[in-house]
Amino acid sequence: MLAFASWVQIAFFRVISTPALSGNRFTHYLIPFSFACAMSLAMLLLCMRMSRYMNVSLAYRWSLPLFMLSYVPIILDYSNANLRILAYAINFLGMFGVQFGCWIGACKYLRRRGGSTVDLFSRYALGEGAGIFAGSLGGLFAVKLLDAQGIMVLSFALMSLVVFVAMATGFNPNWVFHRTHPPRRRANAGPGADATPRAELEAIFLREAVALQGRFGLTERETDVAALLLAGRSRPFIRDELTVSINTVSSHVRSIFSKCGVHSQQELIDLARNDEGEQGGAQGAPA
Fold this sequence. Notes:
- By secondary structure, the protein is mostly helical.
- Helix content is 75%, strand content 0%.
- Pfam families: GerE.
């Protein structure tokens, strides 16, 4: 859904920002593309360098302000070919942000939940292709049927829709559309993984975390973090395991402590163990 909406915006804007009469292809296409490619690679490298302190998924989020910024040049003078070239370059930069962000997000999704790589990227490619087709078709109809003011109104409406979809699904996919899904389970390493002591311990910690989720209303990601905390893992380990920034981990830990009414990792462990013991005693008590 998010990939589809993003690529509808990208394709639509690339159509309406292409000047009818613009010198040559080199000026309008190659220069903006090369500039945006170099800038986006530099921004991605910066995000990767700062990945221990900043969530790499922010690589996607730079696209939203860039999409909105790309409208500024054509609003100033829609008939100016040079301003359209500038808008084209800004939109390319946002496009690279979407592409890098979706790739990074797909890798993180596969690491956390497993599944088929081919299936996931096939669905992404389908959403991207459908978005490009729909956006290009809408842009061509807008250019032929609407004047400059009508194109701007339609563009703002589309941009508002993209921002809403990004807010609803891009930053927390479980906020909408997946609310009734059961808590995530870690993928087993193989057919006999359940029989290994490590897998049994992970299952115990995850069960305790799910119990805390049901009692205190933890989110899906907080449940993942809680399971690792109950296993005695440190925040740097959780950062590397979940491939998020240390600030994100700290934020989740503070939220877990606040919801559970504890002040330390040991208190959280004691709380989970006491709950587990009480449930076990209740189940073993005679009727």
